[in-house]
Design a protein that fits this description.
This protein is an alpha/beta fold and 330 residues long. The chain contains 13 helices and 12 strands. The protein has a domain of 83 residues. The two termini are 28 Å apart.
C-alpha cells in the first residue's frame, strides 16, 4: 500500500450564520494515496465542495473556520502552515478545477496570460517561456488550434473549451494532488465524456492523485477507485467503488443509487417510475446533532438512530458505513 499523500483527520469546519455557528463538516476523515482516484458524492449542501475548499485553504472569510482536525500533505499540516506557505502549495502541489469556468476565469485577460500567471509564479518562468508552455498545455488538453486560442479571451471559447482551460491551469505545475469539483457541470453528455477521458489520460501520464467531487454516480464509477458518500456534513459510507455500488450499506447510499435510471429500462421500453429520497436535507442549524441526520428520511429508522450518532461500522476490509443497521442492510 502506498503511503498517503494527503490525510484528512477528524476535520470539522464551521460557518457563522444568522442562526449561530453551524458545523458544515463534522469530523470528516479520509486519506488519498499517490496516483489514486477517490470520489466524493452526495446531494448539494452535503459538504463536498466545503471539503475541497478546506484542503485548498480557501474557506469563505471571515465566516468559515476550521474548528478542529488536521489536513496532512505528506508530513506537513496545512491547517498550521503560514499563509505564505499555503500560497506556495496551492496551485503548485495541490490544484483545483472549480465548478464554473466562466466565473473562475478572468474576463479581461487572455487564456494564455491566465495559464502563464501560474507558471511565472510557481515555476520561475519568464513571460515568453510561460506563453510557450501555455500553448503546449492547451494542446495537451485538446483545445483546437492552441496557438490561436492562447490569445483569445474566455468569452470567445465554448463551455467545454473553457473547462479544458481550467484543467490546463490546474495541471500547469504538474501537481501531486488535483481536486476536480463538479468538472462537467452544465456540459452536455458528449463533452462530459471527453472531459472524463482527458482527466483519465492526464492522470495516467502524470501520476497525479485525483479527488473527484460530484453528485453523479456514473462519474464516480467511471473515474474513481474508491468513493466517499457524504450527507449533512458527515461521511456516511466509504469503500472501493465496486464494494459501495454493488453492496451499499447505508440507506442514503442506497437511495442515491436507486435514483439513477437504468439504460436497460429505456432500451426495452419497460421504464419504471424514478425512485426519490423522500424528505429534504436538514438545515444548517440541525447539523452536528448527536443523532443520525438521515433519520427523518430513512425507512429503517429506530429509536437508537434518534438517540445517538451512529459509529462507523466496518463492513469489510475497505468498506465502512456510519449506520446503526449497516450489518443488516446486506
Amino acid at each position: 500500500m502506498n503511503k498517503p499523500i494527503l490525510r484528512v483527520e477528524d476535520l470539522t469546519v464551521t460557518l457563522t450564520t444568522r442562526d449561530g455557528i453551524a458545523p458544515v463538516l463534522d469530523n470528516v476523515s479520509f486519506s488519498l494515496n499517490a496516483g489514486e482516484s477517490i470520489g466524493i458524492v452526495g446531494e448539494s449542501g452535503c459538504g463536498k465542495s466545503m471539503t475541497a475548499l478546506a484542503i485548498m485553504g480557501l474557506l469563505p472569510q471571515p465566516v468559515g473556520n476550521i474548528a478542529s482536525g488536521r489536513i496532512w500533505f505528506g508530513d506537513e499540516d496545512m491547517v498550521a502552515v503560514s499563509d505564505a506557505r499555503m500560497r506556495e502549495i496551492r496551485g503548485n502541489d495541490i490544484s483545483m478545477i472549480f465548478q464554473e469556468p466562466m466565473t473562475s476565469l478572468n474576463p479581461v485577460y487572455t487564456i494564455g496570460e491566465q495559464i502563464a500567471e501560474v507558471l511565472r509564479r510557481h515555476q520561475n518562468m519568464n513571460r515568453r517561456q510561460a506563453m510557450v508552455r501555455a500553448t503546449e498545455l492547451l494542446d495537451a488538453v485538446r483545445v483546437p488550434d492552441p496557438a490561436r486560442r492562447v490569445r483569445d479571451y474566455p468569452h470567445q471559447l465554448s463551455g467545454g473549451q473553457r473547462q479544458r482551460v481550467m484543467i490546463a491551469i490546474a495541471l500547469a505545475c504538474e501537481p501531486r494532488v488535483l481536486i476536480a469539483d463538479e468538472p462537467t457541470t452544465a456540459l452536455d453528455v458528449t463533452v462530459q465524456a471527453q472531459i472524463f477521458e482527458l482527466l483519465s489520460d492526464l492522470q495516467s501520464n502524470t501520476g497525479t492523485a485525483v479527488i473527484m467531487i460530484t453528485h453523479d454516480m456514473g462519474a464516480i464509477a467511471e473515474m474513481s477507485e474508491r468513493m466517499i458518500v457524504m450527507y449533512a456534513g458527515r461521511k456516511v459510507e466509504e469503500g472501493t467503488v465496486d464494494d459501495v455500488l454493488d453492496n451499499p450499506r447505508h440507506p442514503y447510499t442506497r437511495g442515491l443509487i436507486a435514483c439513477v435510471p437504468h439504460i436497460q429500462e429505456v432500451v426495452t421500453d419497460q421504464r419504471q417510475p424514478l425512485v426519490e429520497i423522500e424528505g429534504i436535507v436538514p438545515s444548517l442549524s440541525e447539523f452536528g446533532q448527536n443523532a443520525c441526520l438521515f433519520a427523518s428520511r430513512c425507512r429503517h429508522v429506530t429509536d437508537q438512530c434518534l438517540a445517538a450518532r451512529p459509529p462507523e461500522a466496518q463492513v469489510s476490509l475497505q468498506h465502512h458505513a456510519a449506520c446503526w443497521h449497516a450489518e443488516k442492510l446486506s
